[in-house]
Design a protein that fits this description.
115 residues; mainly alpha; 3 helices
């Protein structure tokens, strides 16, 4: 029974393999499609930084919500309020760093375009 199954499976593979090989079009109609629609390194860099800024904006929003939750959960406890204030402070610093990175990226982009 095993021999018949092995023979049948090898027959199917060798019989169907040429069909898949010949099914591939030989014309140059198939071309690699660029998912970024970028034609230069500068455009790839801009697309990467735009994506990074969008992800960072989501992270900053979630961190502000978390800091607000910490303020509510503190219930007047000075230690917990200090933790909430620190979290909010570092979230704002992170948002400023994110904006600074976006400014630096745009400066580098404009510099590379001039070169």
């Amino acid at each position: 029974m095993r021999k018949k199954l092995a023979f049948l499976s090898s027959f199917i593979v060798t019989g169907l393999l040429p069909m898949f090989v010949f099914a591939y079009p030989t014309t140059s109609a198939i071309a690699f499609q660029n998912p970024l629609n970028a034609t230069s390194v500068t455009q790839v860099m801009v697309a990467f930084f735009d994506m990074l800024v969008q992800l960072g904006a989501v992270a900053v929003t979630l961190a502000i919500i978390y800091a607000g939750f910490l303020f509510v959960a503190a219930k007047g406890n000075p230690e917990e309020l200090k933790k909430a204030k620190t979290t909010l402070f570092y979230t704002i610093i992170g948002a400023l760093v994110l904006l600074g990175a976006q400014v630096i990226a745009s400066v580098v982009e404009n510099t590379l375009k001039k070169i």
